[in-house]
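Journal club prep — side note

Before the paper discussion, L.F. wants everyone to see what a predicted structure for a comparable chain looks like in token form. Sequence:
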Amino acid sequence: MRQTVGMPTPVDAPRTARERARAEITREILDAARIRLAEEGATALSLRAVARDVGMVSSAVYRYVPNRDALLTMLIVDAYDSLGAAVERAEAAVPRADALGRFMATCHGVRAWALANPHEYALIYGSPVPGYAAPADTVAPASRVPNVLVAIIVDLTRSGRAPEPDEVPAPVASAVEPVLAVLGPSLSADLMLRGLAAWSAMFGTVSFELFGHLHNVVASGPRARKAYFDEQMRRVATGLGLAPAAR
């Protein structure tokens, strides 16, 4: 069964008996889809099979989920929201002035959620599902963790504790111009690049662990894996200016 760490399935608060029934059936469909996801993977996910699992004929389930791609989108949005909520809670528990603590809490929140929800993590950060293109509905949920990281480095800049920016070659600065245009003058191109590297390193390290790429590289015991992750993230934090360089 799925270990839920974060928000429940995002269903608007129902007011009528019909809305409550619809919300309940939708939750049952998503719960059955998560079991199928764990057992068979996203590529093999079938709306007809999910309908059988909840005791519905396929024509009836289409009233709640129109097709397989819509079901995948619902699962993806739910996974991103669950991850985002878990990370936001972890980061919010740390004092605002403790930038390093906030960053480490964010990293630990991502890793803890991924280890507790490996199939959902694989759905959103693993191989793309053939024939599926994520719609715009997934953008805001997918942005929740990056937004936490951005808030940390923005606060670092405003406090005057950000590292002096290195010169960024013009082609590279142009490459990150889209995100800098959204953030405005709050971040330098150099610090934005450091933040993007931290984002990639965090999810890359989690993915390597979850998908077995650390086998025969890092000891497999939980204490060893956590120690390795902690050290990697502290090194990333040093690059962001959140922690002093090791002597």
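L.F.'s comment for the group: The chain has a mean pLDDT of 90. Keep this in mind when we get to the figures.
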